[in-house]
Amino acid sequence: MNIAVLASGGGSNLRAILNAIHRGTIPGKITLVVSNNSTAGALEIARSHNIPAYHCSQLHYPSEEAFADALLRLFEEHGVALIALAGYMKKVPSLIIERYRNRILNIHPALLPAFGGKGMYGIRVHQTVIASGATVSGASVHIVDEEYDRGPIVIQKQVHVYPDDTPESLAERVLTVEHEIYPQAIKAFVEGRVKVEGRKVTVDA
Predict the structure, then answer these.
(1) Catalytic residue positions, numbered
(2) E strand or H helix at 100
(3) Beta bridge mates, 129
(4) Adjacent-strand bridge partners of 196
């Protein structure tokens, strides 16, 4: 299965997915990496692995529809069947969600539906978790729909929140979990073991 990865930052989850592919854990191939940020580390990681890498920002287009059309052309050119958002900081246009319904995944650094939604990304999530007094956090892989962080959950894993945690120390532990469960979720999709019925997701063993 051909996979596109959309990322805005350093690309650590992209690297985790690539490592799983190279180990043979994921029977798929990343055929395209796209970023809204021209200096994103994810683009450099892609180029170092000879993966087509594109800077594509909505700022370059007259409308969201034109931007979505440009992305869809890229996906079609590279035979994309599954899209993985890996630290992608922009909302996916509804036209793309409709075209790739139930075939877009996102990784979120908290246990959804808690600590999700518009503006909840990066270090802000961990600051909010600690401020809430929560004793557990974690990471969630979910299917992307038209609402921020509200799509059906595929897999989650918890981490403890300790009394002396800082947002940075919590982020480090959660990121380790992200690198573990995102490849697992993608592997399940590629192998056809994920079934989506409305808002319910089942993953066959």
Answers:
(1) 108
(2) none
(3) none
(4) 201
* Structure-token pair, residue 18: 């690539």
Is the domain of 91 the same as that of 124? no
pLDDT in tens, 83-134: 999 999 999 999 999 999 999 999 999 999 999 999 999 999 999 999 999 9
pTM for this prediction: 0.95
To the nearest 10 degrees (0 to 180), the angle between helices 167-190 and 123-132 is 120
Fill in the amino acid letter for 49: H
Return the structure tokens found at 118: 């518009």
**Separation CA 92–CA 35 (nearest Å):** 12
Joined together, the tokens standing for residue 161 give 């929140």
Q: Which residues contact 193 (CB under 8 A, 6 or more apart)?
A: 203, 204, 205
190 and 117 both lie in a single domain: yes
Determine the Cα–Cα distance for residues 79 and 44; give it in Å rounded to an integer.
21
Domain boundary among 68, 100, 132: 100
